[in-house]
Amino acid sequence: MTAAPSYLLPLLQLSDSALPTGAFSHSLGMETHLERGIVHDEQSFANWLTQFIRIQLVHSDGLAIRLAYEADTPAELFRVDRELHAAALPREIREAGVKMGARMLDIAGSVFPCAELEDYATAVGSGECAGHPALAFAIAGKNLGVPLEELLSTYLFSTVTSLTQNAIRGIPLGQNAGQRVLAAAHREVRDGVALVLTLGREDFGVTAPGLEIAQMQHERQRARMFMS
Questions:
Q1: Cα torsion for 19, 24, 26, 29, to the nearest 10°?
Q2: Statement: residue 1 has pLDDT above 70
Q3: 3-state per-residue secondary structure call for 78-133
Q4: Which residue of 16, 39, 58, 185 has the fewest C-beta atoms within 10 A of its own C-beta?
Q5: pLDDT tops 90 at residue 214
Q6: CA-only gyration radius of the chain, Å
């Protein structure tokens, strides 16, 4: 028998939807489309999720993970942090990144400590960096020896899983419907990872204007289940 790689269980732990980062509190703009009836059932949510993966998730968190993984110095990593924070124009999305980033950084630093996570935490604490879950995840994964493609696949699918769980509560969707959406998203995640590996730095922060506007409008929505 071939032993599982040593990073497998730590990677599963960091990408578990039960990890207390607060992701269950964020719809990342989906709730605006729920309120308008644009997202209202299994198929409409699957369509929304596909566009979210292909455009915003790949060109923000996905590319940020690759750039952080490839960074040779703290200065390069800190630059990615600042660019990722600046690219998040909607206030709630920036705040979500900071809040979830602080939790991911604290958890990863507690259970899988390394010098790079400590340096990043120090920079966040001093205000030099904003902090973001994708970057804390990338640093931890790199130090655990996780190959880049596996790290990307796991993070993207973890994000998709969190959003699907939120859709199950928010639309609401049945549990089986949620699993069908997740199964259909496998191809989108694989294609997203392949795209991330081809992108240049000039592609950082590409987003869909309609989604970005919906994310901005969410903060003024009359009734809300989610923080973003």
A1: 120
A2: no
A3: HHHHHHHHHHCCCHHHHHHHHHHHHHHHHHHHHHCCCHHHHHHHHHHHHCCCCCCH
A4: 16
A5: no
A6: 17
- CB neighbourhood size of 165 (10 A): 17
Q: Check: pTM over 0.90? Answer yes or no.
A: yes
Closest CA to 219 of 81, 89, 48, 78: 89
pLDDT tens-place string over residues 171-180: 999 999 999 9
Instruction: Give the whole-angstrom CA distance, residue 118 versus residue 138.
Output: 14
Determine the distance from the C-alpha atom of residue 60 to the mean position of all C-alpha atoms in its chain, rounded to a whole number. Answer: 8
Model confidence pLDDT, tens digit, residues 21-74: 888 888 998 999 899 999 999 999 999 999 999 999 999 999 999 999 999 999
Judge contact between 185 and 53, C-beta under 8 A.
yes
Q: Tens of pLDDT along 124-160?
A: 999 999 999 999 999 999 999 999 999 999 999 999 9
Count the neighbouring beta carbons within 10 Å of the beta carbon of residue 103.
17
Q: How far is 3 from 144, CA to CA, in rounded Å?
A: 16
| Confidence class for position 222, pLDDT limits 50, 70, 90 | confident
Q: What is the token pair recorded at 18?
A: 């039960």
Residue found by looking up tokens 């694989």 in the block: 190
Which residue is listed with tokens 């709730």? Answer: 31
Q: Is 222 exposed, middle or buried (0-12, 13-18, 19+ CB in 10 A)?
A: exposed
Count of C-beta atoms within a 10 Å radius of residue 67 = 22
Which residue, 211, 224, 172, is CA-closest to 50? 211
